[in-house]
Every structure is written in C-alpha cells, then in structure tokens.
Design a protein that fits this description.
Blueprint: H1 2-34, E1 38-39, E2 49-54, H2 59-69, E3 71-72, E4 75-82, E5 93-96, H3 104-111, E6 117-120, E7 132-137, E8 140-145, H4 147-152, E9 156-157, H5 159-164, E10 166-167
Parallel strand pairs: 2-4, 2-5, 5-6, 6-7, 8-10
Antiparallel strand pairs: 1-9, 3-4, 7-8
Helix pairs in contact: 1-2
Length: 169
C-alpha cells in the first residue's frame, strides 16, 4: 500500500516539477535572447556581461549553462547573486524573482541611471520600474516591456523586441 501511494505521489508530482524546470529554462533563454535586441551604453559594451540575480533562484543554474556556451556580442557572460540592494554592483541585467519583488522600490533606486535592465517575474512590475517582466498569456510564457524604463537606464530597445512583447507604460 505504501509503495502504491509513493508511486501515485511521484506520478503526479514529477510532471509538476518538470513544468517548473521547463518554465525556468524558457525564462533563462528569453533573458539571453533579450540581449540581442537591447543596446547598452558604450561604457558597458566592454568587459564581462554580468547578469545579476537578486537572491537565490533556480534560473541561476540555467543561466550558468547558457554562459558556458554563449557570449553577448564579444563579452563573456558572468552570473552573480546579490542578497541586499547595497551589494548590487555594475551589472547589465538584474533578475528579481517573484519572492524578492517586495524590495522593487529599494532595488530600483539603487540601480537608477546605471544601465541595468531590471527583469521581474510578478504582474504589474513593468509599470513599477522594471524594463521587462515575465508573464503567462493563454498558458504560454511571454513578457511585458516598458520602453520608458529601459530608456531611463540608457538602454536602447530594438523595434523587433517591442513587437514581440506586450508594451506597458
């Protein structure tokens, strides 16, 4: 009886876990592909291309896999974790997982004018300072884009990216 219960539990739990993993992979790939349609200020176009993660997130492992195989232009990718806003140093992208989004205002004020693209994972944050925000639309991964927030960071947006996302202001 215990074996049957364990089997049933695994049968129903594994698809849910693989869905979480697949979602994380999509988000990491989206993040890498965003870099092809964004242009950072000249001073950020040399050295390492740094993607920061505020707190811990399973996306880190996926980003490390991508960073081991890809570059952003001629820049090597480096993945860093930051645990408090004051630690946030020069990075190109800062991902804020949903469980850390309560600190968005504090993070935004630390990042203002530093050429950092804030990518969030909670509805409404593209209207509250994020440049890009992951959303699910009709069961599929998509993203919101706030051109004004990106431009405030000195980051230019290619019209192709605007056409692929949901524009918010």
């Amino acid at each position: 009886m215990v074996r049957k219960c364990l089997f049933l539990l695994l049968f129903f739990l594994l698809p849910a876990l693989s869905g979480i993993s697949q979602d994380t992979k999509f988000k990491a790939l989206f993040m890498y592909n965003f870099t092809k349609y964004l242009e950072w200020p000249v001073e950020k176009q040399t050295g390492d291309f740094v993607i920061g993660i505020f707190g811990t997130s399973p996306i880190k492992e996926e980003l490390l896999i991508i960073a081991s195989k890809k570059q952003v232009g001629s820049q090597s990718m480096v993945i860093k974790e930051f645990n408090v806003p004051s630690e946030i140093t020069a990075c190109h992208i800062l991902y804020i997982p949903e469980n850390r989004s309560g600190r968005m205002d504090e993070i935004g004020s630390v990042c203002i004018g530093k050429g950092i693209v804030l990518i969030t994972d909670k509805p409404g944050l593209a209207k509250s300072g994020a440049g890009l925000n992951y959303v699910i639309v009709e069961g599929k991964q998509s993203f919101e884009i706030n051109k004004a927030n990106l431009e405030r960071q000195g980051v230019k947006v290619n019209s192709v990216l605007l056409s692929l996302g949901i524009i918010v202001q």
